[in-house]
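yo

u said u wanted the structure for the complex thing, so here. seqs first:
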Amino acid sequence: MFGAQSDPLDFIDYIRDNPDTFWGYFYEHVELVGYAVLIAILIAVPLAILISRVAFLEKPMTWIANIGQAIPSLAVLALAIPWLGIGFKPSLFALTILAVLPIFLNTFVGITSADPAVVDAAKGMGSSDVQLLRMVQMPLAMPFMFAGIQTAVVQSIGLATLAAYIGGGGFGNWILQGLAVLNFPILLAGAVPVAVMAMTAELVLGGVRRMVVPKGLTV
Amino acid sequence: MQYILDNPDRVWQLTLDHMILVGLAILIASAVGIPLGILISRVSWLALPVLNISGILYTVPSLAFFAILIPYTGLGKTTATTALAVYSLLAIVRNTAAGMDEVPRPTIDAARGMGMTGLQRLRFVELPLALPFILAGIRISTVAAIGIAVIAAVVGAGGLGRLVFDGMRTLDSNVIIAGAFMSILLALLADFGLSRLALLLRPDMRASVERG
Amino acid sequence: MRDGPVECRRRETSQLITLDHVSKVFHSGGKDIRAVDDVSFEVNDGELAVLIGPSGSGKTTTMRMINRLEDISEGTIAIDGRDITSMNLVELRRNVGYVIQQGGLFPHFTVADNVSVVPRLLGWPKRKRRERAEELLELVGLDPDLFADRYPRQLSGGQQQRVGVARALAAEPDIILMDEPFGAVDPITRNQLQRWLRRIQAEVHKTIVFVTHDINEAFLLGDRIVLMNQGAVEQNGEPAELLREPASDFVREFIGDEFALQALEYTFIAELAKPKEERLPKDAFVLPGTMTIPEASRELMDAGEADGDGFWVSGKDGERPGYVTYREFATTLGEGIVSDAEEDDEDLNSMMDGGDDREEARDAVHS
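structre next:
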């Protein structure tokens, strides 16, 4: 029924035929993801540092991790509409909130999982809290933090696709269009670029993460 | 919340659909993933390629993945289940392999020395000891799949996503929240249930350590 | 191999385990490494043979070839006359008990289930398995009511090791292989386990191949010691033989250096001597009772061949000499302490030279 009608690879032609729309969607997508992750970092990292200082909050954090996993991201996006309307801003808002979670959790874990013996030694040598943070905990947490950013970026690329539903633009528009009229070239013209972007981001950021690991550690 | 109380039948039906969708996907992913995990723990050079491939597949955003499958599997549950199964593979394979690797060498040595065949070793020693890891992989995948399955409504697979989309269309946040709530509830129940299952199957992990 | 009741055993030969020019060759990076090099020895039925040597001597590899956990590169190993490579592998292993250092207990099995693993593999009915498990737990000194249904992590290291031995005994194997079974526990527990094994062995008379790097342990437990170095056998014989007639400088040094002689530094051999109802032979080998044990053992090794099963120990003026058998001497070296002297043997004290005890000893003797 499906594959016979048109060769799905036609989507390449479709993209070639509509370069302006393609790049338009591309910029929208990247913009959304870029801003969301950037803002998320600015929120999540300080938050993680702060909360890591309060010892008894460690256990609750695992609970938050669990619950965070369980929240369907689509719902968060959807809830933006009644409260914030549609368009770029609500999308950005939802994406940012959702990006905060992985960055926060990973950074938090990174900080708190520094080998207690090392922390102890640093404290014993008389480092202040800030020095401890700067010299020991943050460097050791870097790989984790980067893993969190990596996750956030890939996740956001996916969510930005969904954001088309609430007027956020990006390649999701083509996917929706393709779904609505069951036109596969259009469908894939939206889906494939997203897939490629996500895989590229994963690989590139993974490489950056490996470079960021302090010498002498392996992640 | 009110919505749930007002429309119990619909909510329940959609929840059931959701559970079946996820359940089937996890079953398939386990049936493929656990043997695969065992395989790559034995044949070490396979580990990297297998994990890389499933890792890459995991990266593809869910909506895009659904969309790419549609020309081949159509709209509806098949597409959704397939995609969910593929997503779940990574965690299950990885955790199974990790669990198998964690079985202490002396224990395996003792098992061999006692004259257990390979299959007996697997059944009596390696799988039971790897079980906590395997179940962790299943648990993680299940929770994630429950969340992703919400999106599946886009491709006609039904489930709790329907509530979210209805709510978006009618600008009724109550409906959206109802969908989200049930989804979260399901996820928490699955998480709890599966961690309990681990303790059930390995009573020794419950035993308190009082030295005799 | 054998599944009849324990009592009706007939052996083809008295040598239960025979290693004949056995070698183990590893091929690594283009070179051949002979981890075990042309090793031959026999273990008699009911004997506890200790394989000992420094790290890398090939002792563990040799033992593991007996139950074919390592393949034999060259040579043959026979059990009761039958070449082990001709036997069904699984059957072989189920008939050879195997105890390793970290116990290898299954953490997810109860103690009782752990003990009855091989019976279970052999298809014994549940009741029989349970009975056997309880019987063995009693044997190893763990009250079944307390321990049978516990899990390994609830037991101390020493207790776990005992369960490991019980497990090896469960299917009534003829042979038990032990790979440094007491290595992972603290010295006090280790000593207890060693004595306990000696007692058990006296009861069950299994044929045991025991790997260790601890010379004390070897002397304490071994009926026979096979000293290995770099894959080859340096000497193979009773402990006393190694003391009296060390086959090479290596043997001399190994025993000499490795012995934990601190406690013995201050012990005189006179304390070991027992009176012997015999006239002192003319050319008897006599050591002064005032020699310390370490001095005496060096003296013995340097002296080379000495006859008989022991040596004489003289008192201050050659009077009232006592006698120490090599066996006793070896055991004492193994224990690292002097075992309890006979309560009645007051004569001992009179042989000690010097010290305040002498007056008391004389009084005690003459009272």
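Chain C has a mean pLDDT of 78. Chain C touches chain B through 37 residues (CB under 8 Å).
cya
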